[in-house]
Specification:
The protein is α+β, with helices and mostly antiparallel strands. It has a domain at 2-191: Vaccinia Virus protein VP39 (Rossmann fold), CATH 3.40.50. It is built from seven helices and seven strands, in the order αααβαβαββαβββα. The chain has helices spanning 2-9, 24-40, 66-72, 104-119, 137-151, 179-191, 306-310; strands at 77-81, 123-128, 155-158, 169-174, 265-269, 273-281, 287-296. The strands form two sheets. A four-stranded mixed β-sheet has the order 1-2-4-3, with helices on both faces. The longest helix is centred in the N-terminal third of the chain and has 17 residues, at 24-40. The chain starts with a helix and ends with a helix.
């Protein structure tokens, strides 16, 4: 839903939204966010535009056929994401397009071709990890020769370059604008990033930004200064049970008085670093941060899968 929210926040009205998402939890989260956005931007995202967004298409891209495409009618924009496990550096056993999850790429490309064939030309955008320099030779070759062979070179950049408070290095391929122009836009946006922007800007009351332990970045757009408050999170996902989660106020964590008892640490993991937050709850179940801790992952840990890292 990130692309939909980006369009809405840029002032673009969503007339009708159709989605294909195989994960039931992801669909529920998306619907909740769409309702929130509708409340904030009622003139740009009416509930009628998305109330049946998961109803018209099968929720498995492989099952979408010609009749579904014809029922869609003409489309303005198709946004495509496909599972990245086959190309991710976080996996120690990445298999590229030989991973059946990531192989969905082929089905997604085929779908876009069918949409254009039956409904006429439209804008499209693909997003995924950038595996151009993946350490596994076969994975790297499949990405550079197959994915880029089909979609083009694309533009890879860190989300912090365009104002994000969290690192997320991804590749973008689109027919909306030339790739060279997209590179220029990213560069200019990074130049305009405020030197005073830190994660403290988005933390709730009672929460303090950690100090940067290193200045590394997943790409050329470095924003961290060792010893200074973090300018971007390695990853920042609000989920039930995390230190950032408050029921009904996911985007605005609240401080609370310290509760009795021994609180559990709340870990957060990314490819490059590990963090933990020690919290306690008050008598109303609200969380209060007691302490922070973080460190960089070593070379072996950077190859862990999400399961290995989280257990």
């Amino acid at each position: 839903m990130a692309s939909t929210e980006a369009l809405i926040r840029m002032g673009i009205k969503i007339k009708q939204l159709h989605c294909c998402e195989s994960d039931q939890t992801a669909r529920a989260v998306a619907m909740a966010r769409l309702k929130t956005l509708s409340g904030i931007f009622p003139n740009l995202s009416a509930e009628s535009a998305f109330e049946n967004c998961f109803g018209l298409l099968p929720q498995d891209v492989k099952l979408i056929n010609q009749s579904h495409i014809i029922a869609l009618g003409p489309l303005d924009l198709v946004v495509c994401g496909f599972p990245c496990q086959g190309f991710s550096r976080a996996s120690g056993t990445a298999k590229g397009l030989r991973d059946p999850r990531t192989a969905v790429f082929v089905d997604v490309v085929r779908l876009v071709h069918r949409i254009i064939r039956h409904q006429g030309n439209c804008a499209w955008l693909f997003e995924n990890v950038d595996a151009s320099s993946h350490p596994d030779l076969q994975v790297r070759q499949e990405f550079n020769e197959v994915v880029k062979g089909v979609l083009g070179q694309g533009c890879a950049f860190d989300a912090v370059a365009v104002g994000s408070y969290a690192h997320r290095y991804r590749g973008i391929w689109t027919n909306l604008i030339p790739t060279t122009l997209l590179h220029e836009m990213v560069a200019k946006r990074f130049e305009a990033r405020s030197p005073t922007q830190t994660v403290q800007d988005v933390l709730g009351p009672g929460r303090l930004a950690l100090r940067a332990q290193h200045s590394r970045a997943p790409g050329p757009h470095a924003v961290k200064v060792v010893g200074e408050p973090l300018c971007a999170f390695a990853t920042f996902v609000t989920y039930r049970g995390s230190h950032a989660y408050v029921a009904g106020k996911e985007d605005s964590p609240a401080a609370a008085k310290v509760a009795q008892g021994r609180p559990p640490p709340d870990p957060d993991w990314s490819v490059v670093e590990l963090g933990a937050v020690l919290v306690q709850r008050d008598d109303q179940g609200r969380e209060f941060v007691i302490a922070y801790a973080s460190r960089s992952n070593n070379r072996t840990e950077r190859n862990y899968s999400n399961y290995q890292a989280g257990r």
